[in-house]
Specification:
383 residues; alpha+beta; three-stranded mixed sheet; 11 helices; globular
Length: 383
């Protein structure tokens, strides 16, 4: 059963069928013991990507001519919600589908689309995107990874960190500097995972989202064909990133809501059963008021994400509105999950209880995709 808090105005028969099929797939292929194994191993089994491709889970937005569904962000929302409802935030399918693939769909040349997109759909290619560098964080204009054109090859040198799908990705879109012309000197170059000179560092030991392989990446004279330049035109990378970041931030907000709704569901169940001073915790006004406040904010968050989804599908979701969604919903997520854990008392501090894992998983959402502070800077420019 989905953890979402109410019907969406965008629910259709097609979307309901997709959700029903997805739920059956997840119940069959992703039982709790598998999720526990992925968390322990700090990586999702590679075969799951192939199974996801066979089911039709991957590359949802890829046009039908390249083997995809040609779906819109509503399908991605359903996937994010159902992953969140099961504590599967660590499997990087939303990154693969709704963050990285759109760059190839929107900006890739015809040849690039034919070469990569069918394999993105089948799971033969797992996608990653390498933005963050040590010392740069959210400052994309401060990147130091460079690429120079030598004949018909780009030669890359540099280092990236905190890269999701870093151990698994077969194709990584690398944000790099191809000239010193400010933001116009930034390009996206696709690097295959088996290129000479490309190495993956350690699978980073994180506080939460343990199953998500997150890595350092190193590029030492990595040579890739000139036609691996995404879009085929040098210096367009910064504009491409700015165009796609609103969808990334909306996706993070959607996952934040999914985590908040799951935390609320678990806490309602727990407080109905847990006794204190001779009666269930749910009968105390403090419990009722705390959970009522979280419920109200979750409903408001869902309504706003629905509005943002509609704008995104129409091509009208601007960077500021997406920043507002990410800022408010992820901060609300942290506050709500923290209050839910408090109602579990000492049991909430035990790793065997899902609320403890949710608390750790939630903490990244105000950081990745642009910190809350960066979101405030973007919003403040409109005041």
């Amino acid at each position: 059963m989905s953890a979402h808090s109410g019907p969406s105005p965008y629910t259709t028969e097609d979307l309901d069928m997709f959700r029903d099929g997805l739920v059956k797939f997840l119940e069959s292929e992703c039982p709790p013991e598998a999720i526990e194994r992925w968390n322990h191993n700090k990586i999702v089994d590679r075969e799951m990507w192939t199974k996801g491709g066979e089911f039709g889970l991957l590359g949802l937005g890829v046009p039908e001519e390249y083997g995809g569904m040609g779906a819109d962000f509503r399908h991605e929302r359903i996937l994010i919600e159902e992953f969140g409802a099961r504590g599967m935030e660590g499997w990087g399918v939303p990154l693969h589908n709704s963050i990285v693939a759109p760059y190839l769909i929107a900006f890739g040349t015809d040849e690039q689309k034919k070469r990569w997109l069918p394999k993105v759909v089948t799971g033969e290619i797992v996608l990653g995107i390498a933005m963050t560098e040590p010392g740069t964080g959210s400052d994309l204009q401060g990147i130091r990874t460079r690429a120079r054109l030598e004949g018909d090859k780009w030669v890359l040198n540099g280092q990236k960190t905190f890269i999701s799908n870093g151990q698994t990705a077969d194709l990584i879109l690398v944000v790099c500097r191809t000239s010193d012309n400010g933001s116009r000197g930034i390009s996206l170059i696709a690097v295959e995972g088996d290129r000479v000179g490309f190495t993956r560092g350690r699978n980073l030991d994180k506080m939460g989202r343990a199953a998500q392989d997150t890595s350092e990446l190193f590029f030492e004279d990595v040579r890739v064909p000139a036609d691996n330049l995404v879009g085929g035109v040098e210096g367009k990378g910064f504009g491409q990133l700015m165009q796609m970041l609103p969808q990334e931030r909306l996706g993070i907000a959607a996952m934040g809501l999914a985590i908040l709704e799951r935390a609320l569901k678990l806490t309602v169940e727990y407080t109905r059963e847990r006794q204190a001073f001779g009666k269930p915790l749910m009968e105390f006004q403090n419990t009722q008021f705390t959970l009522a406040d979280i419920k109200a904010k979750a409903v408001i968050a869902r309504s706003f994400i629905d509005t943002c989804t509609e704008k995104l599908i129409r091509g009208e979701l601007d960077a500021v509105t997406a920043s507002i969604a990410k800022l408010w919903i992820t901060e609300t997520e942290l506050e709500g999950v923290n209050k839910c854990l408090q109602l579990f008392g000492g049991y909430g501090y035990m790793n065997e209880y899902p609320i403890a894992q949710l608390y750790k998983d939630a903490r990244i959402d105000t950081i990745h995709g642009g910190t809350s502070e960066v979101m405030k800077i973007l919003i403040s420019r409109t005041l």
